[in-house]
Amino acid sequence: MTFVWAFVVGGLICVIGQLMMDLTNLTPAHVMTLLVVFGAILDGLGLYEPLIKFAGAGASIPITSFGNALVHGAMAEAEKNGIVGIITGIFEVTSAGISAAIVFSFFAALLFRPKG
């Protein structure tokens, strides 16, 4: 049943993003930004972690999870290190994912040539 809930929740997050693009004049960049902000707001309200526990990868894989990670890391580090922890917490939690994206993008750029 865990797989079903992951599929349903992840699918609903994607449907929300697709509807925002189809029904408004928002660009994909705007929609992505809004989904990150929604994830951050839900984490700030304490609602995103229970969603991850319920849906697993269905909630932790979509872009909303990035907003969750930013706020979660900032709040955890702020408790330990005060106001400076807000900035360091953001970088600490997201650095592995961002570093992986940079490295894999570099290798993709070496292997493929853009058309145009």
UniProtKB/TrEMBL annotation:
Coiled coil: none annotated. It holds the Pfam family SpoVAC_SpoVAEB. The chain crosses the membrane at residues 27-47, 54-71, 83-112. Keywords: Membrane, Transmembrane, Transmembrane helix. InterPro entries: Spore_V_AE (IPR014204), SpoVA (IPR005562). This is Stage V sporulation protein AE.
